[in-house]
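[job 4471] stage=fold_predict status=RUNNING
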Amino acid sequence: MHTYIGGHQAVHHLDFVELALGTPVELWLGVEGETELERAARLDAARDILSDNPNLPDDVSRIAAEAIEAYVPELFNVVPLSRPARRRQSMSGKGAAA
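[job 4471] inference complete, writing structure tokens
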């Protein structure tokens, strides 16, 4: 089964985030090993996007809250693990007074 959003195929979970934001996730989070020049350019581009779309942070927060609310049952489907029985060490032969 394939998932398409606005004509774009979403293959990975980050694809959904990218399609919701309209920008690559790396623009906001950065990439490992980026140079200072790359970081400065990335942050400059992010500032430009935010100045053109002042509601973007609120929209992203709303989308995240809606996604969390929609998947709460799966997110909090926690099953307690049983604890193994504790073994008691015997005191015999350990120098106990008789």
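[job 4471] summary: The chain has a mean pLDDT of 79.
[job 4471] exit 0
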